C-alpha cells in the first residue's frame, strides 16, 4: 500500500476505494459508510484496499 493510498484512506475514503476498484458496489458501500460516520468509512477503505 502506497503512502498516497494511506493518506486518501484517512482523508477521503471513497476516493481511495474508487482509485482501487472503480465505480461499483464497493464504492457505494464506502460512500454510505462515510456519510454515516467518518470512522466506518476509513475502516472499510483500509479493509478493501488491503
From TrEMBL:
InterPro entries: PMP3 (IPR000612). Keywords: Membrane, Transmembrane, Transmembrane helix. The keyword Membrane applies. The chain crosses the membrane at residues 27-48. One of its GO terms (cellular component) is membrane. The keyword Transmembrane helix applies. PANTHER family: HYDROPHOBIC PROTEIN RCI2 LOW TEMPERATURE AND SALT RESPONSIVE PROTEIN LTI6 -RELATED (PTHR21659), UPF0057 MEMBRANE PROTEIN ZK632.10-RELATED (PTHR21659:SF42). This is YqaE/Pmp3 family membrane protein.
